Amino acid sequence: MGALRGPAGAGPARPWWMAFLLGFLLSLVGSSSSPAPQQNSSVYGRRFLGLDKCNACVGTSICKKLFKEEIRFERWLSPHPHLPPANRTSYEGNYTDDSESWRPVVLSWLAPPHLHELADRGICSSAGRKSCSIEAVLRATPRFQSWARSNLLQPRMVQGLAAPMLRCPSQRLLDRIVRRYFEVVDVGSTQMKHFSSKDKLRLLYTLAVNQHPLILQMFPGTEGWPFPRYHGSCGRLVVWAAARPLTDLYESSLARRADAAYQLLHTTQSLASNSLRFNLYYTRVTDTTFGTTEDGRLSIMDASQIGIIDLQNGFHSEDPQVNHTDVFSCLSGSCTSPAPCASVRPTQSFTLLCRHVLPKLLSPKDLHPEGLSARAIAELAVCADPQHSDQRILVAVQTLKDTLQPLRPCNINYGYRYPECRYSDKF
Ligand SMILES: *[C@@H]1O[C@H](CO)[C@@H](O)[C@H](O)[C@H]1NC(C)=O
Ligand SMILES: *[C@@H]1O[C@H](CO)[C@@H](O)[C@H](O)[C@H]1NC(C)=O
Ligand SMILES: *[C@@H]1O[C@H](CO)[C@@H](O)[C@H](O)[C@H]1NC(C)=O
Ligand SMILES: *[C@@H]1O[C@H](CO)[C@@H](O)[C@H](O)[C@H]1NC(C)=O
After folding, report:
1. What range does the domain containing 405 cover?
2. Structural domain includes residue 385
3. I want to staple 347 with a disulfide (CB 3.0 to 4.6 A). Which of 103, 153, 226, 393 is the partner?
4. Ligand nearest 325 Cα, by number?
5. What are the tens digits of pLDDT across the range 255-291?
6. 3-class SS string, 247-263
7. For ligand 4, atom 4, which residue shows the shortest CA distance?
8. What is the pTM for the complete model shown?
9. What is the pLDDT of residues 321-347, one digit of tens each?
């Protein structure tokens, strides 16, 4: 399956304000266009994207593409741009590199709009004010001051942030965040020497609000990780490759559901044990955490709840006697941090999967001679029950995988394993 055909010429006319906005944006991101003559329209677009709140934002890497209409989504093409932004968390859109083929993407706020608003108000009130320059208040915090002074991202600098992956950070993990950070010009160094103070504030802000875009950058699909491709961000809007939601499969044939269930178990295993020696585990899963791409491959569409334990260098837990809470600790909408890494069981991810997702794909209705065995259903219940020992749960997972393996289809719709699956059951 290739890319989507383009909506070329079929879309609504370019809204009147977009030309002005394009000029303005290009000047903002470094081209030599003249500034926008009509301020109101650019004010609208800037506010919509959250560019007026930068550098309390994610980045600007995708702004040019948005304004060149190489990314299209419903809201962007709205003929009524002056309407207040809808209270929506994400939009479906299309993305092109060559104006010929279009690929589906998700455009999503870093946090739901009403949470962004609450957090912004929280920032001002932390400075004792009703309205304020969010950026100025964040820059004045002791936490940002320590970021400004350091070329290395150190564990003490992220203490008290709510992101699950920062619960017990090793230096190696933090180095990877910096090295893979796509929103800076000179990506690839573990030192932040090439970061401007604006870059540091954006990285800190992103870590504080939602780790999702950073996980996509740290563990790219091109290296075999089960995360969608990160395309970039503009203001507080993040763009990544879309997938079909798992819920679409609930009513499909057992073969399709068995394939998804098998991949869920297999992917979860490889997240926990891989050659990079980072244990990626779930702290929460829901229906919308997962999706499947066009070639049938499982993809983790929400990486905001993934915890990480460094299996190579170990970790130091935060000193529980010291309170590291500050204004950055609650920007995600919740001030509670996930359970300490030391309390994470090796089977936590499986238990969550077997409780909240697998029962929607596999059910006693599938019990028949060519379908699921009663044993498989029983093992699913074992896997979902944390009363069992880790060892017993791992046996259940393996039994389930062995049962599901032969039920998986091997045909062209499963490009992620076809045609290899015709010749070997390893795929
Ligand atoms: C721009 O907005 C201001 C107030 O918000 C209004 O007074 C002015 O007429 C607007 N200009 C245009 C060209 O729409
Ligand atoms: C994206 O492309 C698909 C297929 O061409 C089309 O159905 C859909 O309406 C497009 N969406 C937007 C927001 O342009
Ligand atoms: C936006 O939606 C959320 C829940 O989805 C709700 O709690 C909030 O009040 C809404 N805000 C506005 C301004 O409608
Ligand atoms: C830490 O301090 C914040 C206020 O600075 C307070 O709200 C929070 O309850 C404290 N947490 C603990 C565990 O003491």
Report:
1. 246-423
2. yes
3. 393
4. 4
5. 999 999 999 999 999 999 999 999 999 999 998 999 9
6. HHHCCCCHHHHHHHHHH
7. 325
8. 0.87
9. 778 899 999 999 888 888 899 999 999
